[in-house]
Amino acid sequence: MSVWRQRLVKSLYQTRSTPESRYFQLATQSPDGSLHNRTVVCRGLDENRDALWLITDTRSQKWQDLHHNPHAAVCWYIAKTREQYRFSVRCALLTMESDEALCKQHWERLSEPAKAQFLWGKPGELRAHPEQALVAEQTATDKPPSQFGVVRLDISNVDYLSLKGNPQTRERYRLDGEQWQLETIIP
């Protein structure tokens, strides 16, 4: 396991009781060239490769951006440990059609309220009655709907910064084939 991954696993373990430590920022580029940045929930680290998992609605801007250009950037700041991880990633988009077992696995881990979010309607559309609570278009949540998507973010570069100590620590990791190359750099 690479040094950066060991650090990330340790950071996440130390902050497991802090819900906000599961959120990171994902930046994508849309087909018209505009940039979009949003906060997403990490749904896990892949056990077999250097990758992160997230879920999303396939009708969302995020999905459309990644379908157009699978390259994205991640910035993950973990406040409790005072560490920042910046990743260059290439995203794989997975659906019930392409990987039913994986999608079902991620779906089953969700709470009922999280599942209901996929049934409210198309993300980004205007709400006809904003004063009313959102209601799912369908109620069955035993299997993922067609708009449920899973994204695997394969990591190729890591910029790690620890704000603890003086001087601070900054390292850059680059995947070269199957080996991570480390450079210690000035913060």
Q: Would you mind describing this structure in some detail?
A:
The structure is a single chain. With 187 residues, the chain is of the alpha+beta class. The chain is 18% helix and 38% strand. Strands 1, 2, 3, 4, 5, 6, 7 and 8 form an 8-stranded antiparallel beta sheet that branches. 21% of the residues are buried. The model has no long low-confidence stretch (mean pLDDT 93).
Write the layout of secondary structure elements.
Elements: H1 3-14, E1 23-29, E2 35-41, E3 51-57, H2 61-68, E4 71-78, E5 83-94, H3 100-108, H4 112-116, E6 148-162, E7 169-176, E8 179-185
Antiparallel strand pairs: 1-2, 1-4, 3-6, 4-5, 5-6, 6-7, 7-8
- Class from secondary-structure proportions: alpha+beta
* Count of runs of 4 or more consecutive helical residues: 4
Q: Shape, please?
A: globular
How far from one another are the termini?
Answer: 24 Å
Number of strands: 8
Order of helices and strands: HEEEHEEHHEEE
Low-confidence parts, pLDDT < 50 over ≥5 residues? none
Per DSSP, what share of the residues sits in E-state strands of 2 or more residues? 35-45%
